[in-house]
UniProtKB/TrEMBL annotation:
Organism encoding this protein: Hibiscus syriacus
PROSITE patterns hit by this protein: WRKY
Protein name (database record): WRKY transcription factor 8
Alphabetical UniProt keywords: DNA-binding, Nucleus, Transcription, Transcription regulation
Annotated compartments: Nucleus
Major location category of this protein: nucleus
Gene3D superfamilies, per the entry: WRKY domain (2.20.25.80)
Length: 328
DNA sequence: CGTTTTTGACCGGCGC
DNA sequence: GCGCCGGTCAAAAACG
């Protein structure tokens, strides 16, 4: 609270319009080049994250309409890269808050804005949830304030190492949603475990963890202070379980089977598909799907390695073919 | 009464 | 080394 008051939203106006930089959860302060792909000029990339500038269609060669299966494939390709997948409903090209837009035309655009790649490919992704458990365990073992901390040092170091490793492994996936509701229903059950004031923003950031046992997926939700109607949701990790079917008529039925079936690879495009505006029973009727972004974990430069990074042009082609297939 | 949220404290990373 | 900051913990409160 008090730190909230310290943050003055008027302070330091940012030309990135609040969708980037530190207010943008996937912006990497240490690697500003994330927006500087040669194929994607910085201004466009910047504008791409600000709906007030232009729509994604405008940004991306005059528009792309793609189907979700193809979109999943695109994600599949990009699972080991740091490609940005942007998705939006066409009605969100403007600031209109169109109701029931979820059933309308879906415009999805893919662009690569980062050259970051995940850490060692042979790292054990499957144990992520366990690592989370271990991590919390070691933290719990931590002596409470004022206690002696002799054996603590070791656990701290171990914890630090595993934590760092884990953070580098966990794929992150973020998108912007135009919604009045912060915590959008996505079929999974989440438990809030923290809330922090966001620098330069009057809106706090909430931290959620999947309530399913052994599932270490986390998500962060914050509202853009530049456009309070925009919710920034960042997912970290991959669910190792199905959507709870008991959840208010959601769950598997909420999403189309082909998308679910295409989710065999490591990256949570299944997960992404859950958020695509395809559901007519989406409880958030006035939610406009705006932008999606996949992120790979940060990693030290010296460990960069050759990973299949989809070519930007390839993605463009993909989008173009989507466009052809989708348009009547 | 079990589960979830709230919230202040704590920790580690990082920049200066 | 210090301070800032993002992320997490965990006890207490709130909720259903």
């Amino acid at each position: 609270m008090s730190s909230d008051e310290k943050n003055n939203p008027q302070h330091n106006y940012d030309p990135f319009q609040g969708f980037n930089r530190s207010t943008f959860p996937f912006y990497d302060d240490k690697n500003p080049s994330i927006y500087h792909r040669s194929a994607a000029p910085t201004p466009a990339a910047v504008q791409a994250f600000d709906p007030s500038y232009m729509s994604f269609n405008d940004y991306f060669n005059g528009g792309s309409v793609i189907n979700y299966n193809s979109f999943s494939r695109a994600l599949d390709m990009s699972c080991s890269s740091s490609d940005v997948v942007s998705a939006m409903d066409d009605s969100t090209g403007t600031t209109n808050n169109t109701k029931n837009s979820v059933g309308g035309d879906k415009h999805i655009q893919i662009h690569n804005i980062s050259e970051e790649i995940p850490s060692t490919p042979n790292s054990s992704v499957s144990c992520s949830s366990k690592e989370v458990e271990d991590s919390s365990k070691t933290k719990k073992e931590k002596q409470p304030k004022g206690s002696e901390d002799h054996g603590d040092d070791r656990s701290k170091k171990v914890n630090k190492a595993t934590k760092k490793e884990k953070q580098q492994k966990e794929p992150r996936f973020a998108f912007l949603t135009k919604s009045e509701i912060d915590n959008l229903e996505d079929g999974y059950r989440w438990r809030k475990y923290g809330q922090k004031a966001v620098k330069k923003s009057p809106y706090p950031r909430s931290y959620y963890r999947c309530t399913s046992l052994k599932c270490g997926v986390k998500k962060r939700i914050e509202r853009s202070y530049q456009d309070p109607s925009v919710v920034i949701t960042t997912y970290e990790g991959k669910h190792n379980h199905h959507i709870p079917t008991t959840l208010r008529g959601h769950g598997a039925g909420m999403f189309s089977p082909p998308i679910m079936a295409s989710s065999a690879s490591g990256f949570p495009h299944e997960f992404l598909s859950h958020f695509l505006p395809s559901s007519s029973n989406n409880p958030v009727g006035n939610t406009n799907f705006m932008h999606c972004q996949t992120l790979s974990p940060q990693q030290p430069q010296q460990h960069q390695q050759q990973v299949q990074v989809p070519d930007y042009g390839l993605l463009q082609d993909l989008v173009s073919s989507f466009n052809r297939n989708q348009l009547p």
